[in-house]
Write a structure and sequence with these properties.
Layout lengths: L4 H25 L15 E7 L5 H11 L24 E8 L5 E4 L11 E4 L4 H36 L1
Antiparallel strand pairs: 1-2, 3-4
Helix pairs in contact: 1-3
């Protein structure tokens, strides 16, 4: 594993968990939305994660340095040739955000403006408890990855102190 491997993996997880938290917040905000621009009640959304392809921070750094014409020429910057280091597998990316196809909940409320002729209103099938559990999972995962980045920073700082 190279120097930036942990940061690559953790940064991809931070981005993915942020999207997951935003989707959960959107679901909770629209729990009572009975009318959308597409028609009908709001549909709950899910985030689908997938293993990330090659790239990340190291790839961006190398392409930026080489792209700007800085002469690397196989120079070993961090013990291993920066251009020769392989990217670290294990990152995550948001593959897609999909809508839940469950049928809406029907509540009898004849005074509601979106009530049908029978007096029932279609509400999104969103359970706030399920959304809170999903949000707590996203928050925990985000915190763990932030801790991993902090540990990596401490390791780099300690390595630099040793080299002085």
């Amino acid at each position: 594993m190279n120097l930036f491997g942990v940061m690559d993996v953790s940064s991809s997880a931070l981005k993915a968990e942020r999207v997951r938290a935003e989707i959960v917040a959107s679901n909770m905000a629209n729990a009572e939305t009975t009318r959308t621009s597409e028609g009908g009640p709001y549909q709950r959304h899910h985030v689908v994660f997938a293993a990330e392809e090659e790239g990340g921070f190291q790839h961006s750094l190398v392409s930026r340095l080489v792209g700007d014409g800085l002469p690397l020429h196989g120079v070993s910057l961090f013990g291993e040739g920066l251009t020769e280091a392989k990217s670290t597998p294990g990152g995550v990316a948001v593959a897609s955000v999909i809508a839940d196809n469950r049928a809406p909940l029907r509540r009898y409320d004849p005074q509601h403006p979106d009530a049908g002729p029978d007096g029932y209103v279609a509400y999104p099938d969103i359970n706030p408890l399920t959304e809170m559990v999903d949000l707590m999972g996203a928050t925990r995962s985000y915190g763990m990855n932030a801790s991993a980045v902090q540990a990596e920073k401490n390791m780099v700082s300690s390595s630099l102190e040793i080299l002085k």
